[in-house]
Every structure is written in structure tokens, then in C-alpha cells.
Amino acid sequence: MPQLKPIILFVTHEQTKIGGSSLSLVNLIRGISDHYHSIVIAPKNGIVSNYFRNLGIETHVFRYELSFTDTKGLVRWASFLPRLIRDLFLNKMAIKAIRDKFRMMNVALVHSNSSAVDIGPELAKNLGCVHVWHLREFLNRDFGFNPKFGWVRFRKQIRKADQIICVSSAIASHFELQDSKNAHVIHNAVHEKMDRLISRSKEKYLLFAGGTNKAKGIDDAIRGFRDISLLDDELILKVVGYIEDKKIDQIRLQVKSLGLQGKVEFLGFISNMSVFFEKAQCLLMCSPSEGMGRVTVEAMFFGCPVIGFANAGTLELIKHQETGMLYKNASEIVECYKWLAGDDVRRNTVIRDAFEYAQMNFTEDEYAKKIKKLYQECLAKPTNV
User: Fold this and answer.
1) Structural domain that includes position 238
2) Which of 44, 189, 295, 297 could form a disulfide with 364 if both were Cys (CB 3.0 to 4.6 A apart)?
């Protein structure tokens, strides 16, 4: 009888939108599939749970709630208290149901796949196994979320995990883990290793991949594009990502006020961006608080130079004028574009160097080696449960 692989339970938080944490989890699962059997635990049936199932990844749904609010201080308590007892009860029942489902199976590890997943510690305790917490988001800086019992207690809870993975040094610093022995900075995998850089003729458009999310910097992207469009009237800006109805009208007003009617296209969510990257003049990565910036690395893999906001995770990925361009305020975006567009040899050198950097650091194979080493080390030690 063949030896059964150890099971990893990946606890996720996304429900209705396939975001970077789900995409990066797929890269992780593919990379470790030779050693571990991965099972995804999702809080709701729908787009995200079906996304994993359609990829052939075993997925189970248990209803649990995330213990965060979009307020803080006394307002946080006033808004959260009415649902606190309900959420605690739902999460307790979810943990019991997951434990009963898997306790007779070879579960080696519970892997919380987001900063926002906080049932992982108690679930690992109930299963008597190792807990790994994967910190991918700042929470407050990028999504405006705050922990139900405050940041001091939440950071203490994170430190108790057997191992902690931070997707960037900026995330590690945010959670005050720079000196923690069980915290490790491991950048996400974004793609499998490619044979070569695909070279395509560039078309007359720039990309922004944050949808209508203000936290992703769409205001900067539109202002920067306005300045760039004055250099070349044929250029357009393609906005890719989820379009929120309550925000799109305000953004269209901004487009109109800047005289950009007909020059900004809203394409919605696109699952495979490779051709868009290959043909774009550049990607505008304008998020001021990007945990890592998966889309930045995707662009590097597909020959699209990146103009990025010089902060947080983006600052760790781009070397200015080597693997991309960095700016500190929106007025500098046009200067970055001029530097790239003004010399084909210079731009092609940036594209090539960025591709080689991505190949060396963000492939599934390299990522899997680091993750499997971390798993092996923590499974060999007593757990913190």
C-alpha cells in the first residue's frame, strides 16, 4: 500500500473575488504537490471555492468569519460588538466541524493563507498539529481593516505561530517581526520557470491592474497617465481588475475632468494577463502599501516594464532604472515613462534584467524549495499549540 502524503490544510479568506492570496496559493500548492496533499478550507461556496475546485484542488467549505472591522477605537467596538458573539459562536462551530472532518486523517499542518485568517491557531490546537501563518497583507494600510481586539493582542497572537511567513520585509516590519526567530521573509511565487522571454511588438497602451480600488492607487495612475498622454495622443490606459459600481462613477468623473474621455478603458477582472503585459508600453503599479506586489512580478515575467510607487513591497522588488522605475509622487510618473520610452536599448535592457530577476527569485520551483524546507523544520520541532 503506498504511503499517504501528509496533509496541509490551507485556510483561506477570499470569497467573491480571486485576489493575489488565492493566486499565490495555487503556485504554492503546485510547488509542494510532490510531498504534500493540499486541502483548501474556504468560508463560503462561490467564485473562489469553485476556482480551486476547477483546478483539481480538494476544497471544503465551512462557514467562519474574519475578526476585523474597518473602524478603530471606540467606533470599532460600537460597530463590532453586535456581531462579536455571533462570530465567536460561528467560528467555534466551524473549528469543531473541521476538526471532526479531518481528525482521523494525516493532517500535518494548518497553514493560514492570509494575515486576515485568525481561526488557524485554534484549529491547529484542536487538531494537535503545527500552525504556519502566512502574512500577505498589512490589513490596515492596504484594506483599512483593524483586529477586533486591537493590534497589540493580534501581533502577540501571530508570534505564537510555529512558523510565520512574510511576503516582504515591509510586512515583517509592520507586524514587528524583524527579530523574531520563527518569522521568515519568503516572496511569493508568481509563475513556473519560463524557457525564454517572449518578445512582442508593443501597442499604444499602458496598464493599471488595481481595478477601481482606491487603495491600489488608481488616482495616481490616472493623473500620471494624463501627463503621459500629452506626450503621445494615441496612448490609452487599460484598467484591469474588479470594477466596483459605487466607485466607477467617481472615477469616470475624474477621467472627464482631466480631459481623458475615450482614453481610459475599464476591462474588469481578467484571469490571464500575459498577452496584455507582453503588448503594454508599461505597467503603472501605484499602490502606496503593497504587501509584495504580485502583479509587478507578473509584468517582469512577460516583458512589461514597471513604473512603481517607491514604498512598501514594491520598493523591495524594483531597482530603479535596472529592473523598473520608481517614483515618489504622481508628478514623477511621466518622467519615468520618458526615461523608458526615450531609448529602446535602455528600455529593452530593463525588460531583460527584470525578466532574469523574476526567473531567479519568483518561480514555483524556487518557492517550493523554501516552503518545503520551512515545513520540514517546523514539523521536526514541538508545536506551540
Assistant:
1) 205-361
2) 189
Query: In this model, does residue 201 exceed pLDDT 50?
Result: yes
One domain for residues 167 and 269: no
This prediction's pTM: 0.89
Rg (CA), the chain: 22
Mean pLDDT of the chain: 90
Q: Which three cell numbers stand for residue 70?
A: 474597518
Length of the chain: 385
* Edge-to-edge strand list for the sheet holding 264-268: 264-268, 236-240, 205-208, 283-285, 306-309, 325-327
What are the tens digits of pLDDT across the range 268-298?
888 889 999 999 999 999 998 899 989 999 9
Domain count, the chain: 2
Give the HSE-up count for residue 182: Cα atoms under 13 Å, Cβ half-sphere.
21
In a domain, 2, yes or no: no
Strands (E) in the chain, as ranges, are 7-11, 37-42, 58-61, 68-69, 107-112, 130-135, 146-147, 163-166, 183-185, 205-208, 236-240, 264-268, 283-285, 306-309, 325-327
CB atoms within 10 A of CB 105: 14
Taking 60 as the threshold, does the pLDDT of residue 3 lie above it? no
pLDDT tens digits, one per residue of 71-93: 555 655 666 666 777 888 899 99
DSSP 332: G
Query: Biggest alpha carbon distance in the chain?
Result: 69
- The verdict on residue 200 lying in a domain is no
Residue 183 lies inside a defined structural domain of this protein: yes
